C-alpha cells in the first residue's frame, strides 16, 4: 500500500528534477554504494522477517527509530552551537 505511494512519489520527483534542473549539480558517486546496500538490505530484511519473531523485529525497529531521532537531535544541537 503505502510503499507503492512512496515509490511513485519519488519516481515523480526524480523525473521532475531530471526534466527541469538535471542531476549535474548533485554528487551521485555514493549511488554505487547506496543502491547495492538497499537491495541487500531488502533481501536480508525479508529473510530475517521469516526467521525472527515479530517481537524481536519490533524491538529492532523501535531501537533504530530511537537511534535516528537521537542522531537528528545531536545534529540539531551541533548546528545551533
What does this structure look like?
The chain is 81% helix and 0% strand. The longest helix has 27 residues, at 54-80. The chain contains three helices and no strands. It is mainly α. It is extended.
Q: Characterize the biggest β-sheet.
A: none
Derived from helix and strand composition plus strand pairing, the structural class reads mainly alpha
Number of helices: 3
Broad shape: extended
Q: DSSP strand (E) fraction?
A: under 5%
H and E order: HHH
Mean pLDDT over the full residue set: 92
Report the end-to-end length measured between terminal Cα atoms: 41 Å
Low-confidence stretches: none
Q: Could you give the count of β-strands?
A: 0
Rg of Cα set: 17 Å
State the helical fraction. over 70%
Oligomeric state, counting identical vs distinct chains: single chain
Amino acid at each position: 500500500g503505502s510503499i507503492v505511494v512512496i515509490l511513485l512519489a519519488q519516481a515523480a520527483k526524480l523525473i521532475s528534477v531530471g526534466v527541469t534542473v538535471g542531476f549535474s549539480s548533485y554528487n551521485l558517486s555514493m549511488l554505487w554504494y547506496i543502491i547495492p546496500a538497499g537491495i541487500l538490505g531488502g533481501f536480508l530484511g525479508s529473510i530475517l522477517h521469516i526467521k525472527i519473531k515479530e517481537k524481536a523485529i519490533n524491538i529492532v525497529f523501535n531501537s533504530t527509530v530511537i537511534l535516528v531521532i537521537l542522531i537528528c537531535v545531536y545534529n540539531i544541537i551541533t548546528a545551533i552551537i
